[in-house]
Amino acid sequence: MRVQVREAAPEDLPAMAAIDDALVEDSQRWYEVADLLTRGGCLLAEDLVDAIPSAIGYVAVAPRQFFGRDLIALLVVAERCRRRGVGTQLLRAATRRATSEAVFTSTNESNRPMLELLKADGWTVSGRLEGLDDGDPEMVFYRDAQARR
After folding, report:
1. Which ranges in the chain belong to alpha helices (H)?
2. CATH number of domain containing 44
3. What residues pair up with 74 in beta bridges, in sequence order?
4. Average pLDDT, whole number, for the chain?
5. Contact predicate 84/104, CB 8 Å
6. CA–CA separation, 62 vs 84, rounded Å?
7. Helix (H, G, I), strand (E, B), or coil: what is residue 8?
8. What is the pLDDT of residue 73?
9. Domain span at residue 126?
10. What is the pTM of this model?
11. For residue 9, how far is the Cα from the chain centroid?
12. What pLDDT is recorded for position 148?
């Protein structure tokens, strides 16, 4: 697998939906991602092995939307490409493009793969939020964006 990460464009939304069922199932998510796409807030990972690049992941960043800091709102990797470094590449590309000194993200405590990814990539636990998802606290992490430049 040869991965390229580039800025996503609005015309990439169908390819992103092909690897993220929630984009199709959740209209709010669709509109949030579409809005970030028009503002240059999404990066797309493509597999370049074949002659035609195919979408294998994306990251959606809401600039300065978390207490004045960038927030990685979504990180999605195609199931067939997980545990192969795509998520790490997307996280690192997002932090390199940060508009704030620190970048934040969060995930449910039950999302073990994401928790392991954040730990392996050196993200720091900022805190734990109760009450968002019943019985599944949200874990908040941050990363110094300057360290990735």
Report:
1. 13-19, 21-25, 27-38, 86-96, 112-120
2. 3.40.630.30
3. 60
4. 92
5. no
6. 25
7. coil
8. 94
9. 3-148
10. 0.91
11. 15
12. 55
Residue with tokens 């000194």: 101
Of 28-32, 47-51, 62-66, 79-83, give the lowest mean pLDDT range.
47-51
Q: How far lies 22's CA from each of 27, 32, 122, in Å? A: 9, 12, 28
What is the identity of the amino acid at 56?
Answer: I
Decide if 58 contacts 6 (C-beta within 8 A): no
Total structural domains within the chain: 1
- Looking at residue 147, its pLDDT comes to 66
In 119-128, which positions are buried (b, 16+ CB within 10 angstroms) versus exposed (e)? eeeebeebee
Collapsing DSSP to helix, strand or coil, 60 comes out as: strand
Residues 6+ apart with CB under 8 A from 101: 69, 144, 145, 146
Pairing of strands 102-108, 69-77: parallel
Token pair listed for 122: 């050196």
pLDDT value, residue 101:
93
Q: Is the pLDDT of residue 71 over 90?
A: yes
The mean pLDDT value for 113-142 works out to 94
